[in-house]
């Protein structure tokens, strides 16, 4: 899985019928030091993520292993909302930091 | 499967159903010299690994099979600890004690200095 920030939503009226009622979000990938990369992915939201939130997403056939995306043409799914992470005990990202 | 070093832990309360209680950890894949290879990623841990541990992991859909509930959106999973990984006469499991070598790239040296000590 990779971590990214939700930077936008994607609206597509004409799409495969199996993708109807799926919330599509645009995610900018961040590295482990929380530095944004020049890498974006459109992912189905399976957890109710919001704008600007840091999320974890899974790619490939694993992305179809949710009740929302099973047997649907989807190769990226947001499967968790990140609260915080640390590297070797040192906090790098904290969602609720003031 | 690949070799990797666990470098950090991720906290995520809101998760896809079936992933409750599964530890999520940052890992750095390693090459045959024990140097960082490619980008870091987050993996579900099937073992009680922690920062500094040398582990092996699987990527792709098979990663979900290592989780308690196999129908989960997991594409990378830590499967086990590596006690010994020999390349020639060199044991990769002992790399954190290795001093920087001449000719090492700055990036590799930096990567190593960020690598947490083994707990």
What does this structure look like?
The complex is a heterodimer of chains A (98) and B (119). With 98 residues, chain A is an all-beta fold. Chain A has a single domain (2-94), classed as EutN/Ccml (OB fold (Dihydrolipoamide Acetyltransferase, E2P), Beta Barrel). Chain A has no helices and seven strands. Chain A has a five-stranded mixed β-barrel with strand order 1-2-3-5-4. Chain A has a two-stranded antiparallel sheet with strand order 6-7. In chain A, strand 6 (84-87) and strand 7 (90-94) form a beta hairpin. Chain B has 119 residues and is mainly beta. Chain B has one domain: EutN/Ccml (OB fold (Dihydrolipoamide Acetyltransferase, E2P), Beta Barrel), CATH 2.40.50. Helix content of chain B is 11%, strand content 33%. Chain B has helices at residues 62-65, 106-114, and strands at residues 2-11, 14-15, 24-29, 41-45, 54-59, 76-81, 86-87, 90-91. In chain B, the strands form two sheets. In chain B, strands 1-3-4-6-5 form a five-stranded mixed beta barrel. In chain B, strands 7-8 form a two-stranded antiparallel sheet. In chain B, strand 7 and strand 8 form a beta hairpin. The model of chain B is unreliable at 97-102 (pLDDT under 50). Chain A binds chain B through residues 1-3, 31-32, 46-49, 56, 58-67, 69, 77, 79-89, 92, and chain B through 7-17, 19, 24, 26, 39-44, 51-52, 60-61, 63-64, 71-76, 114-117. Strand 5 of chain A pairs antiparallel with strand 2 (14-15) of chain B, so a sheet runs across the interface.
């Amino acid at each position: 899985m990779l971590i990214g920030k939700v930077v936008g939503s994607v609206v597509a009226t004409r799409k495969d019928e199996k993708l109807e009622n799926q919330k599509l979000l645009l995610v900018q990938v961040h590295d482990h030091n929380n530095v944004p990369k020049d890498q974006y992915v459109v992912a189905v939201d399976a957890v109710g993520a919001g704008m600007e939130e840091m999320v974890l997403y899974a790619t490939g056939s694993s992305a179809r292993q949710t009740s929302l995306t099973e047997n649907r043409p989807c190769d990226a799914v947001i499967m968790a909302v990140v609260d915080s992470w640390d590297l070797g005990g040192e906090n790098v990202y904290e969602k609720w930091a003031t | 499967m690949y070799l990797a070093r666990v470098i950090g832990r991720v906290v995520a309360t809101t998760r896809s159903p079936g992933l409750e209680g599964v530890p999520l950890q940052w890992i750095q894949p390693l090459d045959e010299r024990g140097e960082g290879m490619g980008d870091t990623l987050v993996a579900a841990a099937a073992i009680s690994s922690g920062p500094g541990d040398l582990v092996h992991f699987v990527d792709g859909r098979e990663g979900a099979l290592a989780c308690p509930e196999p129908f989960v959106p997991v594409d990378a999973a830590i499967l086990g600890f590596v006690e010994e990984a020999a390349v020639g006469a060199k044991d990769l499991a002992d790399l954190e004690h290795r001093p920087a070598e001449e000719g090492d790239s700055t990036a590799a040296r930096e990567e190593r200095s960020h690598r947490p000590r083994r707990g």
